[in-house]
Design a protein that fits this description.
The complex is a heterodimer of chains A (203) and B (623).
Chain A: E1 5-12, H1 17-30, E2 34-38, E3 49-57, E4 70-75, H2 78-84, E5 88-97, H3 104-107, H4 117-123, E6 127-131, H5 133-139, H6 146-154, H7 162-173, H8 178-198
Chain B: E1 12-16, H1 17-27, E2 32-35, H2 43-48, E3 55-58, H3 62-74, E4 79-84, H4 85-90, H5 92-101, E5 107-113, H6 128-133, E6 137-138, H7 143-160, E7 164-169, H8 170-173, E8 175-180, H9 196-199, H10 203-226, E9 230-233, E10 240-245, H11 247-255, E11 261-264, E12 266-268, H12 272-279, E13 284-288, H13 294-301, E14 306-307, H14 320-330, H15 360-369, E15 374-377, H16 402-413, E16 422-428, H17 429-445, E17 451-455, H18 485-491, E18 499-502, H19 507-519, E19 524-528, E20 544-546, E21 565-574, E22 580-588, E23 608-610
Parallel strand pairs in B: 2-3, 2-4, 4-5, 5-7, 6-7, 10-11, 10-13, 13-14, 15-16, 16-17, 17-19, 18-19
Antiparallel strand pairs in B: 1-8, 6-12, 9-11, 20-23, 21-22
Helix pairs in contact in B: 1-7, 3-5, 11-14, 15-19, 16-17
Classes of the chains: A alpha/beta (203), B alpha/beta (623).
Amino acid sequence: MPNITNILVCGIGGQGVMTATEILSEAAIAEGHDVKKTEVAGMSQRGGVVTSHLRFGPKVLSPQIAPGTADVLLGFEAAEALRWAHYLKPGALALVNDARLVPPVVELGLFKYPDDPIGEMKARGVRTVSFDAATLARDLGDLRLGNTVMLGAIADQLPFSAEVLLDCIVKRFARKGEQVVEANRRAFAAGRAAAQAAAPATA
Amino acid sequence: MAAVMPAPAASRLLMSGNEAVARAVWEAGTKVCAGYPGTPATEMLEALSAYPDLYTEWSVNEKVSLEVAIGASMMGARAFCAMKHVGLNVAADPLMTLTLTGVEGGLVIAVADDVGMSSSQNEQDSRFWGRFAHVPMLEPSDSQEACDMARYAFELSEEYQVPVILRLTSRICHVKGLVKVGERFAHQPKGFSKNAERWVMVPGHAKRRIPLMLAREQELKRFSDRTPLNVLEPGSDRRVAFVTSGPAYMHVRESFPDAPVLKLGLSYPWPLEKVAQLAEMADTLVVVEETEPLLENELKAAGFAAHGKDFLPRMGELAPEVVKPAVARLLRKEASPAPESATPLPPLFPRPPTLCASCPHMGVYYTLSQLKNLTISGDIGCYTLGAGHPWNSLDSTICMGASMGIALGMDKGRGEADKNKKVLAVIGDSTFMHMGMQGLLDITWNRGNVTVLLLDNGTVGMTGGQNTPANGRDIRGQGAPRIDFRKLIEALGVKPERIHEVDPYQLPVLFKTVREEVKIDDVSVIITNRPCVLIEEFKPFKPYVVQEDKCTGCGNCVEVGCPAIHVTRRDRVLKPSGKEVDLAFTRIDSVACTGCGLCVQPCAPEAIVHYEPVMPRIVVQPV
């Protein structure tokens, strides 16, 4: 489909993947796009894999992004970004929180967590920008800001200005008071700066 | 949830299919809405409970929810019920006779199929109900259509005096899209008219209704060719013409923008003339339908040379990446190759759903995993996860409430090989009230020897924490009569001395109670009494931490199965006895830990202590 932007957001249940994609959807709507957003929820709340597909443009038909067609991948967890890297278009960009969240089946010794998921992505030729969203959030005083850090990281990869996205975040937190709004502004700026700083020279 | 002011008409809102259906049900002036939680249908009733001027309820099961809707319809009110695909199996009994009486006030049944099986025990195709019950079936393709069709379904229902099934799938229920909403229509119930020949379905009356039902179906078949719900979209590509419905329509349209397509909004009865017109438009006729080759077989029976499941998958979703290459193969044409980067990796580790940190079920499954010679029938809910690692403690799961009857059958059917096995059943509070009570009655009446573990966590956990008769709140969170399990179970014939209420965080008590009760040749019920960690009743405790210098790597805490426990280092040592032992040294993620203390109890070296100072706790998992 021409003129359709495909954004894939992935992570694990409870990380805020669906909320982040919802805010991205609101920004696309504010820009006048038709929007479809899909994920399969169900059991994902219990630490399962979560992927959220966001498609926007003049008119969106199928809500699902096909492998090899995503314009950007926003990964909330290192191995999850690797798991979904093949959804990216050739040469497209992955923005990845380098946190490693290890599930009980790995702790029990039944499966292995990859040694270097970010390195594997790069070895596959994916343009990968990674950063430590949790530390950035913690430095700003609240781990829950990690979600906004992630949105800041993707802000310069959208077909509209970063301010449109920031406005949607501000609107969402407005009723929680100026302090919360300000913390989210700082988290957004930190995510943006982290993605810019970590961008590969070829980007 | 208190009623909120709905968005004004003509607003464009980002809505899931479930939210869009709820909006339409409210707009249609519906008076009574009922359902039972089940993925992917849950949010329809949840969203409806926030609308003003209508009655909503969580029913105890889907059969009751449909019966509530039928009663309201008899009074002339518009009525709605929603359920997941397997829910309609439960509600099939009233449906199959409702189709004979017909309806008075519009009655719409939304049924949501879990195509791809994200959270279900099977993947059945609810489109069969249209044929089986001789009722019309509407299939929206996105949120806007879900809203428009749900609203229209009430009119159709009243026009033909027929219950209408709105068939959704996960890819409608949980996809968000823009929806332009409409005005609310004020619908007044006409009032009940006594008419035993219509409403009292004894054989003599029912016989006279069957020809009416069949005539109605024929009229609907003619209507299907007239209605704009069934759209014939001509196209310039004459190689393949598609018949499709629901989300598959979007996948087909996306994949083959120039092909002729017959989009079925009213998918049963389907429009014969429109199919014939479509067949003229291309060399090959293909039915793209998810799961069963239902329409394909019907088209073939009607004389059309239709393709479908001869080259498309019989299970799962038919997304563009599935349909496109499959059609190319049918046309013996090379599909345009997917980019090399689109090849998936060799599979990574899985992330099966896990029980939450501090989940009270964890204590139960840890206990069961430490006992031998048990055969355990399980049930539907979060606690089905007890079948997984590390507990491996459930031996069967079939359907809602089945743990009871299956346990009795295991007890009665056992031969010499199982004579020393103890039979247990594990069931949650909501599942017990849904369909488990009758099974327990069967066990007591027929003198079964079963130990029942009733895991009362005060909510429907797996679907997101809906209220139940066990927590004393209704769908809107208002106070409601609370069921006393002890009294109920006693009334079902279990002896008072065989009923135990146990704190599932107290492992020694739980262990002792289970071990003693399985030895007794009688029915016992052990009720666990801690709330689900996702509901307001749950109060977190102080988190724990592993003292590194004291951890001996015994790995006992890992066996509890808590997602907050992580292995930091593994080792293998040779014991003086000559036996090799694997060691796993651990840490506790103190941010995720809510301090239930389950891991503290099996810790041999007492290395697990409270984490000081107490930090502000964040329930959501940080990135």
